[in-house]
Amino acid sequence: MEMKDLAAELSSTSYPGRGIIIGKTPDGTKAAIAYFIMGRSENSRNRVFVEDGEGIRTQAFDPSKLEDPSLIIYAPVRVLGNKTIVTNGDQTDTIYELMDKQMTFEQSLRTREFEPDAPNYTPRISGVLHIENGDYNFAMSILKSDDGDPDSCNRFTFAYSNPAAGKGRFIHTYMSDGNPLPSYQGEPTLVNIPDDMNEFADTVWNSLDADNKVSLFVRYINIADGTYETKIINKNS
Prior knowledge:
six-stranded antiparallel β-sheet, 5 helices, mainly beta, single chain, 237 residues, 41% strand, five-stranded antiparallel β-sheet, Glutamine Phosphoribosylpyrophosphate, subunit 1, domain 1
């Protein structure tokens, strides 16, 4: 697969929606995660990321303007032992709870489908990173309607064992802006990952559409011992 320039890929559309990037730094020492949210409506744009334990959650920037919280208020990132879970919805909790009961990432997501937001039927995108004793692997998933047919759910899981240094995988909810919004297609895009977390965060944030971007979470995890650094950027602050 051809590696895409991360900045170019992010800026190629005004509305990729919500996105997850997971990979490994070029020096091979850290796992990298990015999760961003965007919004077209006032309700979607009225959000910030806040830290919540070892993870994060979304909350209304202005509570008085919050309308329907069902699909916009959730915990995008949770940590379960040596696993870090990142998703674009409340399936984070589903994965956390069922993996805690010894179910796999894929089995956990069998209990969920795409979002019930007709006519878009927004895909549920998810990732899990497993770091243990200096070993690192990750998996990504997308649950989406069958070309807009709400009666059929297409399920794809992509697993990466011993991921290569300097490479990341990028999956997002929409191919582009539109009405209805077209769901992501294909396997996660291969993109470059830098060694420096701040450079990574700045590249992602500065490449997203200025009007539509809302919040960004970035974390670099030391593969040797599981310690990590986190950066959060909110448009509303």
